[in-house]
Amino acid sequence: xxxxxxxxxxAAAARLGAxxxxxxxxRYVRVDSLQAALEAPRRVxxxxxxxxxxEEEPSFVVVDGQFHHLGRADLPGVWGFRVMxxxxxxxxxxxLATTTELPTVWALAGPCQQALAVRGDAGxxxxxxNAATGGPSGWxxxxxxxxxxxxxxxxxxxxxxxxxxxxxxxxxxxxxAHLTVEEIQATPATILTSQADLTLAQDSQVTWTxxxxxxxxxxxxxxxxLQGRGASxxxxxxxxxxxxxxxxxxxxxxxxxxxxxSRQLIKxxxxxxSRTSLDSVIAxxxxxxxxxxxxxxxxxxLSPLARADTRPQLDIRADExxxxxxxxxxxxxxxxxxxxxxxGFSETEATATLSHGWRDEVRGRLTR
Length: 368
Hints:
By secondary structure, this protein is α/β, with parallel strands linked by helices. The protein contains six helices and 19 strands. The strands form two sheets. The protein has a ten-stranded mixed sheet with strand order 2-1-5-7-9-11-13-15-17-19, with helices on one face. A nine-stranded mixed sheet has the order 3-4-6-8-10-12-14-16-18, covered by helices on one side.
């Protein structure tokens, strides 16, 4: 069944065609990477996945779109998994249809689809290892948080071969729920696309931290709709790229209710001929007075061959709103470099020392 789903998805992707730079959301992406040669999937064992799992903590893995339980993945009374039912599938398709993503990007995100219902707080993170060994694969996880429930997800993407991997997370937060996500690219990737669709009810919270090292094509998209009064979303991402890697972040945060808040901090460190971009929109609906939104994008260029593009945008349709955005693209401070060089640091050591603190503002948020 998995094989036939992959075949059907691959056929759909071929029929729909690949994204091009004529699309606004893909204007900064080297889309030729989508034509990269892929390896055949291969069988992997527990030893291959052990570096990214924490012993004795709830965890599961998805290998090339196929779901596996490891450890205590089901905790009765706190959370439980089930295969997505027809209603879930229809809702997932409707959510995807409202975004500006091309269906071809997510045509593969269907072979293995799981739903996760969260009722309480386990007190420990749930680790997900998304492993791709070769070929095209993808899957969707749907999370439903009950009122007051808390969920801490640690998502690690591991490429064990030349593969195209698509991952989607859909999360509905009921009143007072809190979702914490740490999304980490554990290894360089060939092609990795990640998308989150978040819906926040009254007084619910999302705290999301992502760290990327890039690849032939690595792209994250986050769509968050703050539907209830008092909802808040705090998103931070770090793209740390080198070589010819590229990493792109797209965010769409919509304030649809009064007295909601959002914070976004996206930082990049670019070496060699790497490439990053940010395309972000903060939208405030009519009547969403009391909104407090802030977006900051900071790009540190370590090489004359590197390139960072930034496109922060505001769409404000309410009167009493506090909203701000800022973006910078720059190099290391010459005086600080000179200070360290005069004290015996090599150029490489000085660069590493100064850029370390730049990264830690985001990396310091990680607990795993």
